[in-house]
Amino acid sequence: MSTTGHRKDPAYWKAVADSACVELADADALETLAWTARTFGDRWIVASSMQDALLIDLAVRVNPAVDVLFLQTGYHFPETLGTRDAVTVDYPRLRVIDAEPEQSVAEQEAAYGTLHRTDPGRCCQLRKVRPLRRALAGYDAWVTGIRRADAPTRADAPLVSWDERHGLVKVNPIAAWSDERAERYLAERGVLRNPLVAEGYTSIGCAPCTTKPGPDDGPRGGRWAGLGKTECGLHG
Ligand code: SF4
Predict the structure, then answer these.
(1) β-bridge partners, 170
(2) What's the mean pLDDT in 203-231?
(3) Closest ligand 1 atom, CA of 126?
(4) Does pTM top 0.70 for this prediction?
């Protein structure tokens, strides 16, 4: 399907996403990514939190020079920044796009204090949601590592959808993967992981908002613990 002339047409892309939902109903992750590369050419980007390089490893199998989006919030663990750098060594042809907030951490804290304690929703807006929106403006599709097994809020995540909020197609090629499937892929292919995973962190975000989950918590139980917040606003 040619995309020429349709790049600014949400109705066209929404129809593409709707038909892909049917066409790819039984597709595996690589088939879904191959469809993404065919459909969007070089106008798609893979979002990564740098918890591991599972999604990146899959994506480079269909496009070794794929763009990878990393939200440089300024609050990351050193291990996460190290993983970001190691990705560029393991996959030398890809390009990591660092999406940065308008203010540095020092500027934001001077203006508003430590928002991650007082108003984490606003902090995520300033340091994640707005930079993401700016970065995605140059693409027709983004690929995320959302899995239905991550959390109840993600239980209905579709493989392909029109992302109304950001105005582009959203592809979740591993939406149906179980924890065991993801683990198997990481082990079999020797994929890079953030060293914090081995220390017991099951969902890694910014350092001030991430703790190790307890034995009765879900995989995302260590995110914004005690703040009544479960998502950063990137995924609806
Ligand atoms: Fe701020 Fe925490 Fe959100 Fe990071 S996860 S942007 S530190 S509130």
Answers:
(1) 142, 161
(2) 74
(3) 6
(4) yes
